[in-house]
Amino acid sequence: MKKLAKSAMALLVSTFVLASCGGGSDAAAGGETKPVTLKVAFNQSEAHPQYKALQEFGTKLEEETGGAYKLEISPNALLGDQRATAELVQSDAIQMAVVGNPILESYNTDFSVIGLPYVYDSQEHQKEVFTSGVLNDLFKSVEDKNITVVGSFTAGARSIYTDKPVQTPADLAGYKIRVMQSDTMKKMLDLMGGVGTPMAQGEVYTAIQQGVLEGGENNEVTYVDLKHYEVAPYFSYTEHLMVPDLVIMSSSVYNGMTPENKEIFDRLMAEAINSEFELWNADVETAKATATAAGATFVEIDDLTPFQESVKPLQDEAINSSETAKALYESIRGLAK
Ligand code: GCU
After folding, report:
1. Is the dihedral of CA 101, 228, 49, 330 positive or negative?
2. How many angstroms separate the CA atoms of 138 and 111, rounded?
3. Per-residue pLDDT tens for 75-93?
4. Exposed (0-12), middle (13-18) or buried (19+): which is 161, by Cβ within 10 Å?
5. Does ligand 1 lie within 6 Å of residue 152's CB atom?
């Protein structure tokens, strides 16, 4: 029933989007005679650092392409949850979306490597990985499904929040903790001692409030943006994940750009990725201050080793799942200082 309602909604959205979309690719527009509106689905608010980075990207793109391309960002999951919006991109109903890395695991399991627990040592390490080109092949690996990953944003480090401080995996026994919708994420949380419960982000607040979940895991910015501190006031720094958020685009639109416009697009996207790292750090501090003022507690964990050890089987499984996965893992680790 719920599923049916969701697909009906997706259909409605895509009909609406198709009807209101400004155009196709350069090629479809007959060599840029018609400006192309790139509709972007975003599942968080206008205050989010990724929204700000994308907005700036859009302004510059329009300027530098002489108006050939413009961005229209729909925030607050207006076009659906991340899984639904990836499908809208795939079917060319919209042109772009920001989705958490776990969403792409169902298109190619090698993506799980770049979202593994404790794979990045620090933000500097992650930035190096995002900007060094080592992910280029992975990002083009799902073009047969009409999806090109055109960039990856940091979403900080994720930690666990619930109704009590957490210090060890034993503290999570029997605790249903929401995870993003992928098998890897579920396995991870189970190994960390709790019960991983995959769910779309928009449903989490009510689920915790109603006792369907005991908590969730996310970064400070989203914890505060979605007011989850109201229902789960203890945020304990497990810092188990630094999951990339991927900017995905319809391959037919991306590959339909003229070489000049593509060069502009890629260059501005690289700038947006760098600037989002800066915006991110400032927003984490603001988010923590807001939550603390509202009564939330941020808990440092004395020893992270038990959590790090607990997820080793998952790392081994993902790394050994294919030759490409292994090579990818090695090149990521090779960039750690
Ligand atoms: C973060 C991430 C989102 C993701 C969300 C989630 O906020 O930036 O891309 O949707 O976590 O937990 O679903």
Report:
1. negative
2. 7
3. 999 999 999 999 999 999 9
4. buried
5. no
Q: Cβ distance 253 to 49 under 8 Å?
A: no
* Ligand 1 pocket, mutate which of 44, 182, 227, 242 (most atoms under 8 A from CB): 44
Does ligand 1 have an atom closer than 6 angstroms to the CB of 100?
A: yes
CA 100 – ligand 1 centroid, Å:
6
**Encoding tokens for residue 97?**
């979306």
Work out which ligand 1 atom sits closest to the CA atom of 217. Answer: 12
pLDDT of residue 209: 98
Report whether 246 contacts 114 (CB < 8 A).
Answer: no
d(CA 313, CA 329): 15
- 155 phi/psi in degrees, rounded to 5: -130, 35
225 lines ligand 1 (CB under 6 A): no
Ligand 1 atom with least separation from CA of 179: 12
Residue located nearest, by CA, to atom 6 of ligand 1: 201
Cα–Cα nearest to 97, from 116, 118, 63, 74: 74
pLDDT of 8 reads: 43
Rounded alpha-carbon distances, angstroms, from residue 46 to 17, 53, 304, 323: 20, 10, 34, 40
Cα(302) to ligand 1 centroid in Å equals 26
What confidence tens digit (pLDDT) does each residue in 22-65 have?
A: 444 454 444 445 899 999 999 999 999 999 999 999 999 999 99
